[in-house]
Amino acid sequence: MTAKRRQRGDRRTGRDRVVMENCQRKVRLKMAPLERFLTRMNVALGLRRDSTFVRLVTDREMARLNGTFRKKPKTTDVLSFPSDERGRPARLHARAKSLRGQFLGDIAISPVLAGQNAKRYGRTLEAEICILMLHGLLHLLGYDHETDRGEMERVEAKLQRQLRLG
Question: 20 pairs with which residues across the strands?
Answer without folding.
Answer: 6, 54
